[in-house]
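Example 3.2
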Amino acid sequence: MIEIRDLVKYYGDICAVDHVSFSVEEGEILGFLGPNGAGKTTTMNILTGYLSATSGTVLVNGHDILENPHEAKKCIGYLPEHPPLYLDMTVTEFLQFVAELKGVPKELRIRQMAEIMKLVRITDVAGRLIKNLSKGYRQRVGIAQALVGNPQVLVLDEPTVGLDPKQIIEIRNLIKELGQRHTVILSSHILPEVQAVCERVVIINKGKIAAVDTPAGLSRKMTSTSRLQLSVEGPSKEIVQKLRLIPGIHKAELFTEKEENISVIEVENEPETDVRRQIFYEMARNSWPIIEMKSLDPTLEEIFLQVTGNYQEGKRG
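Structure, written as tokens:
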């Protein structure tokens, strides 16, 4: 759906984007991450046609953004970090204005706007002035304008910035729903959000691609083993011995005994091997209840800090 090849962008003598290449498959939700000044926003602005590249190629559904900008832009809906809303318009007036700008046929506008407002859950505020809406509703209106024209690709830059936890969860669920109908590129500094929503991530640092993979794939690359922590009720020595006999586990050690007869044990196994089911069955056979089982593999936040060279700084902060 999207193909970015050898993209370069200079601002004077400063290289903001340095030979960046990656692709986005149809129907994929891709996380696009990078620290401030890494070239992330510049790349997104080139992709959406707001900036021209110094060199390189951007194809959107086969259309070159430079050679055939009109057709390429018709395929893209863009939500910038600060949505360009007209505060003195009502929600309906603003979406009608956007539909006219995007060339949506008049006979389709009313039905399409009704569908979009229902999808992003702003029907109840359709007649209100945008300036009187909460931050959460304004973000929804911003997403609605990106959906006008039914573009195949949505580019969302920091869609949950400034929202409260409840609003973040609502927008996160909306993005998942949109991913069923559109290809989505999501940029966010809230990395647990990206980990929860995105199937694959691209990390850019100092203008260059630093990593491309699924969150699980990046985690495997960051460590030679996979680690689990178990809280199990039963005799700690026997539990550890049984765990060490499970194929794929090459280390099991008692971490602590947090309360009477409950042992906290750390297990290391080969990263490509999922040993959770075998652990469950072995503990069940011996009538040792598993109170808790959690992964100790690196989070996307830890991976991001390590890939961008800020790991120690991030750990101190």
